[in-house]
Amino acid sequence: MIMTKKLLFIFPLICTIIGLSSCNSDTPDKPDTNTETIPASELTKDDLLGTWEIYNSEKQVIKVKEDGSESAYPNFRSVDYDGFINKFYIDSKGVYTFENSNVLDELIDKGTYDVKDGLITMNVTRHNGRDTSFVNTETISIFYKNKEAFTVFKYFTVDGYKIRDGRSMRNIEKAPNIHPNMEKVDVKGKYSSLLGKWEVYDYQLLANGVYDATYSKETLAKLKGNTYTFNDEGSGKTSVNIDFRDPDNDGVRITGKYPVKIVDDIVYYFVDNAVDTLGNYVPTAPFLWVTDWKKRTDSSTNKEFDSFVSFNKFRTDARPDIIYEMRRFLRRID
């Protein structure tokens, strides 16, 4: 089985893991907000002023058939943009300005904006380090009255598909830890429970919920023994030592110590020296996302051990009707 290109469509407005509970529980965390909302049609550009962080992304893919009928594929949470920042402010000349940046605080887009009839119109003047000029419009779906969070959607078509790209953002100056209407587990608050060395001991791939035993076994043989060691660097800084080979990405090898950024249940580690099997540098932005961490029992020894599951879902361009689900099981070994 070969999986190549992930189905990924850029969302201009905001285009710019490890989910843990405790060592003994997988009870998720669900910080919420006041659910009272403002009708999108009543919003103005002043309502968006502030710094907003993406905490949830979802993508719906709809196949448009030759006869004009449509078939919607299931959507799911995508974590590729968690932690990206969208800032709306009034500059020194009194101009309403927006900036979008990634988790490394690198500027992606900048320009002016307006809000009218539930639409955000962005006149982009700077994109990926270059001057430019184009316009994006996004639809506001939900905006909480306390101005703690809001959700926007982008609609477009690509090669016979309709795409509905959605992002939810929270105001990090008012409510930096909320994620309304969704359950997560609190990594940032429980990071000390993760400190130490962990190794991959199992792997599962599911396609639309069906376990692929052959591919899972072959991949486990390549992954088994890969390790992550999480460190507390003090002053609120964290890092991870990694010895890892990625069988799903041309055998890319990642070794060394890297800084870490935690966004809810996502742990990003920033790698600048990943190489493929030929020794060529490969740009990469790896992360871990775990949905389950608890005590498990070794069937051969009947002893309990700490374990979590690094989780991810994706589609490919070749088969957008299939949702692939990867599960990497890690256990503490120190």
UniProtKB/TrEMBL annotation:
Keywords: Signal. This is Lipocalin-like domain-containing protein. Residues 1-21 form the signal peptide.
